[in-house]
Description:
Low-confidence stretches: 132-136
Oligomer: single chain
Mean pLDDT: 90
CATH class: Alpha Beta
Amino acid sequence: MRALLDTSVLISDDPGLLPEEAAISVVSLAELHFGLLLAKDPLERAHRAQRLGFVEAEFDPIPVDAEIARIWAELAHLCVARGLHPRRRSMDLLIAATAKALRVPLISLDGDLNPLADVVDLRRGPGERADLGTAG
């Protein structure tokens, strides 16, 4: 595995974001299931169901374990220390904690994690580092 994919990448239609070897967190799978249930339009629901089926067929999701839980707590604490709101980012932080535990980059289009780019290896695509920023 060369990278962990954030849910934002899984729902993107840009194949250039995908590295040759990647994994996903079980958290992304939960987010995709939730997104499917939220879809009111039948065509959108069908599109989301097709994407979810592809993701489930292509990836064996990484579960959240004790190490990931510990790293999540550290990242959430860092958010608080930086004046950010960890509850709003809880799912994103679990995915980031998974990447950090596995010592691989996290490919994400989600700017909510930019304030943590100094402690989590964030990328916008294979090999492309994320901008450091301060999303609130």
